[in-house]
Predict the structure of Catalase.
Amino acid sequence: MHQVAVDGEPHLTTNQGLPIADNQNSLKAGVRGPLLLEDFILREKITHFDHERIPERIVHARGSGAHGYFQPYESAADITSAGFLQDPKKITEVFVRFSTVAGGAGSVDLPRDVRGFAVKFYTEEGNFDLVGNNIPVFFIQDAMKFPDVVHAVKMEPDRGFPQAASAHATFWDFISLTPESMHMIMWAMSDRAIPRSLRMIEGFGVHTFRFITAKGVSRFVKFHWRPTIGSAAVVWDEAVKISGADPDFHRRDLWEAIERGDFPEWELGVQVIEEGQAADLDFDLLDPTKLIPEEIIPIRMLGKMVLNRNPDNHFAETEQVAYCPSHIVPGIGFSDDPLLQGRLFSYLDTQLSRLGGPNFHQIPVNAPRCPFANNQRDGLRQMHVHKGRVAYEPSQISPPSAPRECPMHGFRTHPEAETGEKIRKRSDTFADHYSQARLFYRSMTVPEQNHIASALAFELAKVEIVGIRQRMLGHLALIDPVLQQTVADALGMSVKESVKIQAAVAPRDLALSPSLSMIAKDPQTLKGRKAGILVTEGTDASTLQALLAAFSNEKAAVELIAPKIGGVTASNGSAIAVHHSLSGAPSVLFDTVVILASEKAIGDLVREAAAVNWVRDAFGHLKVIGYSPEATALMEAAGVEPDDGTVLLAGANPGKTFVRSAKQGRRWDREPTLRSIG
Ligand code: HDD
């Protein structure tokens, strides 16, 4: 939009460019009279406002986006001819949108849910959209079932709740009758579904894709995104509380990290499977409910993505961005995965209704950065003024600049031989629904296994229909009998009540894959994490300085919290400005916390429920807590039993002492002393 300057001043105008004299008052018949229909300025403004919202995405409606770039480490020409993967100097612009799946656009950021991880690469050969999730497998094997699984998880249609939650009868009704979903259920009930930050999620292309070389050699690939600062989750009780304390927790975290220059980064990698190797795997590569353990086929890292710019406008970019798995570039191809094949249709179709017609590719966030030209014309929201009389080819009267086919460099589908009857049938090679569910569950550390059991018990306790719970217990028996027993106990049910499920293929004990565990891979870092320091009147200035320096050294963000937003005066008389008042910043918002209370302030803090809860929650959420000697009374009031994750800040170098402990992350060994499964 152009700024309208009259006399050197910027002016408000109507959409027709008419300068507006008064933006405060509508046109009335007398100062106290009714509004006049004649007021075209009011009508234009209100009409535009009335149409501000567009249909939200049926899934993944809640999303947060960012701009950035991708750069390869080296040429991947030996496996793909994709232009953006040929040269380590080539930088490709990207736009990423992270999302939850079930909730509406205004829902909270931290329900238990899968996270979408969609990347648009604006390559010189056209846009490549990698539309993945933070979980490497999916609930269903065939696109035919997608509307069913989505209707089951969305709020129930008669009552309009629950919003953004799978803990209700219709979801578990569907799941309990869909054995193919069991592997994904293990992931969805794991800590992966309550991430600490979008900056810390892994991403997966889920399906098997193809990489094709310039010579036409095709190999199968699975795409992986790995955050360079490691993956982490919150604990469930924290997720519940964060949803109230900051419904925008993930969106804000992503925005603030980019604003402070702490740019989120991921490595992009692929597992490469030679065509002949596919038959050696103990499952079908076309089945999207299966993964290939890294221990069997390691990931080859191709390059790094950095998100370094926040959107200028949430609606124009994050809301209007349109990803389609069918947006592909030469050197990359599809497999016959029946879920992927269905997606190739669905996304284009959804953009037509969401973005109002076939020209959504002209919206700036969607437009290729390379030139694009064809003979498609007109349509709703056409922004181009196409010139000339020819909108077809071949033509002998079109100008030399008219677009022509490009046999040398154009996209070619890999010529895979296909034969077969027309048939509606699931391949027998897709029938083992339990072995990889077991593999995932058994590859977790003990705390992670406990969390899966707790999540199942929580969710199933919200299902009032006993038969659904009994059927789920039957599935759990096939995944792991100990898990079945633990969940049954937590529900106050007996395993004898379980519905006996006949597995189409008896589950097998596959070799475990420790790389699936987040805790086992915890990088033990404070980088990208956030510390909260509670300060009071008279806080010891030198301890505070030592802590700030130590956190900065570790590249951790720090926020100060005081009983009042006006800040405090430290022991040396300096005024300390703070980011939050105590009531607005519960400890769930921080990865690690410190209480720097002074002698004169501690009495008031101990009497303040918000302060006691601050400490009690941080302890319950297994965080490392630092405290000044004067704050001991608050630790006691919160019922904290000192352990190696509670650090008394006394002696020389309190900053170093504290970060050494805080870097080790949550104290999982504290958990069994605080919480039972269920
Ligand atoms: Fe999908 C959106 C990821 C299966 C149909 N999907 C959507 C988004 C992500 C995924 C990340 C949000 C994109 C954005 O931020 O705008 N979807 C997946 C993954 C799947 C998957 C990883 C399985 C491996 N999806 C899937 C199937 C279908 C769809 C089987 C339909 C047959 N998905 C859609 C959709 C959405 C969508 C209805 C809603 C909004 C949109 O496309 O643009 O077309």
About this structure: The chain has 18 helices and 20 strands.
